[in-house]
Amino acid sequence: xxxxxxxxxxxxxxxxxxxxxxxxxxxxxxxxxxxxxxxxxxxxxxxxxxxxxxxxxxxxxxxxxxxxxxxxxxxxxxxxxxxxxxxxxxxxxxxxxxxxxxxxxxxxxxxxxxxxxxxxxxxxxxxxxxxxxxxxxxxxxxxxxxxxxxxxxxxxxxxxxxxxxxxxxxxxxxxxxxxxxxxxxxxxxxxxxxxxxxxxxxxxxxxxxxxxxxxxxxxxxxxxxxxxxxxxxxxxxxxxxxxxxxxxxxxxxxxxxxxxxxxxxxxxxxxxxxxxxxxxxxxxxxxxxxxxxxxxxxxxxxxxxxxxxxxxxxxxxxxxxxxxxxxxxxxxxxxxxxxxxxxxxxxxxxxxxxxxxxxxxxxxxxxxxxxxxxxxxxxxxxxxxxxxxxxxxxxxxxxxxxxxxxxxxxxxxxxxxxxxxxxxxxxxxxxxxxxxxxxxxxxxxxxxxxxxxxxxxxxxxxxxxxxxxxxxxxxxxxxxxxxxxxxxxxxxxxxxxxxxxxxxxxx
Length: 507
Hints:
By secondary structure, the protein is α/β, with parallel strands linked by helices. About 35% of the residues lie in helices and about 25% in strands. Helix 10 (about 200-210) crosses helix 11.
């Protein structure tokens, strides 16, 4: 295939340079206020715009005072009206596409509007920014000399009472379905395969196409892509995916932490050829890209249709906690992320927590979920703690996991309080589960001082309990909850036992 990378590079170089100019807190403020003014002006005649008098808001302080913070349950009634065909509710006009995401206490699923502006100004723009950053880092790249393998979901959903013509499903399904026809020539598989709902048919169909394609880059969620790659290698009879795709050079990944999967990818790729680029792209928006060679921090995209605010975690439980704009965050602090976006979400608490890794330019890392943590014994264990500890424990024991979740076990008359981990192995540790649990427990103590303090002397918190589950248990649980496929994820940490007990019933 003709190498089009030199022809494409000037366009992407311009985008990378434009993003690089937004470095100082002052330039971040200018970019963010331009986004906010656009959003308020665009939506001033919607129902929410009239309610909060968008036409009278002239400053960030007025914006923060006028519009309350909200979570999904406050938005759900309006979204359901939009799904029924009502217009001018959260965003002008009728929104016909929605990303189905893991639900809240008010329903099994959330439905995030995907407006035309959200596609053009944010999701596709974020993809361009990710590619621009990558090409800026690697001048020798031949990214456009072959195909992209983009792993997507489908439009499968359980809704019945919606207006005709509404498309509801995985965000990736809409992104593939609405992709520019020119870009579509550069990717596999075709829409007929990419949008299949049945993974039992979809997986071998992807493998058949991929075996005969010159793939230079892949995009998707690490856990799902690992299954796809292993299927392709088995079909080809090889031990390295580079024996199938010798020109594969980068995995654009997101959705879940990559740390626990890195060693497994290293095992079936040629490390001299392979690179990894982390992106923060959620159902609610494309927020950040990796713009440095070293992983761990992502550049927040402040000029592509999303206005960001940040809530200090200590204030998150307040009825209406004070939020900070992007230009006022502090280095090293961890915040709950709030977005206002061209998809019609206004001061929406997305549920993710981010750590500020740099303020000039503004770079973040994903710390976890506001509701994906364990704090049953004052240990304040966050998802980034467990991902990092698990990755290190796997490295030390040559183990590899397929999936995991953890939850508290509360003390009774014969048992101390502790954490229970369910782990499905791809490669079990040679040292055995109990030795692995010791290593994992020590790694958690090294990463989290609160956990270490509660474990001190084995008094307040006992060592974690590791329960091995058979292959396929997590997939069966996802299928039982209607969440198998696409970009659906296992809850990593829970502060109660609802998830873990329901998985144990399938063991």
